[in-house]
Design the sequence.
């Protein structure tokens, strides 16, 4: 499979497939395709895995696109302004943990399943991020980043605290937990969220500069009301 990223504001990844190659995405994720592509929609991995995807904010059903001829093309676009990040899963034998909403598409040789943080309190009180996805396998995985991408490699024991909505993905070697912002004044007057995501190395971390949930919250007061 060959691919190229098209566009900058709301980019797309265009793939050129060989006969028999298969890629998959959430239902409704495809932008365009040429002749020679066959589509099949199913609950990838069975009912339990599909229900797990629903908990993580993804589609229950996944659309699979297979090439019937060499050179068939298909493209998938981001849903908001941002960027697309290709990840070669062969470089991550222990897998990659993905924040909900960050999965765009992948080769059929990549598997995704729901995973949980080690501490139940992280999900119970932390809002976003309790139920994540773990990607494993070989082949290419494409992530959707809102805004611009920030990547860093944490050394063993090195820690970074991030607004949960700005986390895209991190290697399985990175430990993850939710912690509360300290100080009542900071909580009620600081203008930030009540919780932060604590990531501890070693491993690679991918962040995004745009927290789309916060962005939506900022524009809602300016939308016209029915009154």
Sequence:
């Amino acid at each position: 499979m060959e691919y190229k990223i098209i566009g900058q504001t709301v980019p797309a990844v265009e793939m050129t497939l060989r006969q028999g190659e298969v890629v998959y995405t959430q239902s409704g994720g495809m932008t365009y395709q040429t002749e020679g592509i066959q589509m099949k929609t199913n609950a990838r991995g069975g009912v339990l895995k599909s229900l797990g995807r629903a908990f993580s904010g993804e589609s229950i059903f996944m659309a699979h696109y297979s090439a019937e001829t060499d050179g068939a093309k298909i493209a998938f676009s981001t849903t908001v302004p941002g960027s697309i990040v290709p990840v070669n899963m062969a470089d991550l034998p222990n897998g990659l943990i993905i924040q909900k909403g960050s999965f765009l598409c992948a080769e059929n040789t990549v598997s995704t399943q729901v995973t949980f943080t080690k501490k139940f309190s992280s999900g119970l009180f932390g809002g976003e991020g309790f139920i994540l996805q773990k990607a494993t396998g070989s082949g290419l995985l494409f992530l959707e980043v809102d805004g611009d991408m920030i990547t860093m490699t944490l050394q063993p024991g090195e820690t970074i605290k991030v607004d949960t909505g700005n986390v895209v993905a991190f290697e399985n070697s990175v430990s993850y937990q939710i912690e509360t912002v300290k100080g009542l004044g900071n909580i009620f007057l600081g203008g930030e969220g009540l919780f932060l995501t604590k990531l501890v190395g070693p491993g690679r971390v991918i962040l995004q500069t745009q927290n789309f949930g916060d962005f939506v919250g900022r524009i809602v007061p300016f939308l016209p009301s029915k009154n």
